[in-house]
Structure formats: structure tokens, C-alpha cells
Amino acid sequence: MMRTLWIVLLAALLSGCGYNTFQTTDEQIKASWAEVLNQYQRRADLIPNLVNTVKGYAAQEQAVLLGVTEARAKVGSIQATPELINDAQAFAKFQAAQGELTSALSRLLVVSENYPQLKSDQNFRDLQAQLEGTENRITVARNRYIKAVQEYNVTVREFPTNLTAMIFGYKVKPSFTVENEKAISAPPVVSFDAPKAVPAK
Description:
Layout: H1 2-16, H2 19-57, H3 62-77, H4 88-112, H5 116-120, H6 122-157, H7 161-168, H8 181-185
Helix pairs in contact: 2-3, 2-6, 3-4
């Protein structure tokens, strides 16, 4: 009887001190992070076809093409394990690599504007549309992750749940924060304007 009473009291104390909240928010972070990785992988999978299509019309743009390929390789070299979201330094490295890839893709799309035949290629237009949709999904997934981390971090810091955090070793988790968050999270501009006719000489 006494043992049951202690168990009930302990459960009530843990619940009142935010223990259950930590479990819930931690699971939300894991789920949100998995979706972020899923969308980033989706983007990475589009890149080889996109680069090859551009190369077919603009092979001379070696610096831009190489930049995208190298940025993708750098992203792929980072082990995005679940533990990464508990390591601020590793998280920052991952985020920087994804930011570089976003910039490289933006440069590639800007270059494509100089090649009317490339812009009118159906395969290229399809890849652009898929890339734009993926970038939008990345932004949504990142925002969900940011919200989940914010909720968790508030629980870690505020009283009395901060006592529970200290007892069980819950620490603040890193989130997506950059100098220019809007610029990084904005999807590359994709233009579907018809190519201008070249005047006859």
C-alpha cells in the first residue's frame, strides 16, 4: 500500500515539474527534425539531374556547376544523426553547409536566365518546379522545428521545470538562427517567363 502511494506521489511530482512535457516536446523535436532531413534529402536528390540538364545547354558555366556539385558533396559528408540536434557546433556546421547549397542553387538558377533554350527545356522547367516546391517544404519543416525547439527550450529554462531539466540532464537545443534568416530560408526565385525572341538581323 505504502509503495503504491509513493509511486503515485512520484508520478504527480514528475508530472507537475514538467517531466511529461519534456518527453512530449523532445518527441516533437525528433519528428520535426526527421522532416527537415527528409526535405533536404529530397532537394539533394534533385541536384544531379538539374546540374546535368544545365550542363547540356551551358557547359561553359563550369564554376557555377562545380559550386553546386561541391556544395552538395559537402552537405552529404555531414552525418545528420539524431545526436546532431544536441550538439550546437555540429548543428551550426550542418546549417552552414545547407546555406551554401541554397546559395549555389540560387546562382545556378540565375545563370540559367542567360540561356533561353535551357529555360524553355521541359525537363529543366519540371526540375525547377520540383525544386521550388521542395524549397517551400524545407521552409515549412524548418519553421516547425524552430517552434518545437523553442517550446522545449522554454521548458528547460523556466521555473520549476528547470529543476527537472537539471535533475534529468535536459539541455537547451540549438535551432536555425543565422545572420540573415529570411535570405537563407527564402526559396530560390524560379522564373517561368517565356524566352524573348531574338530579333532577326
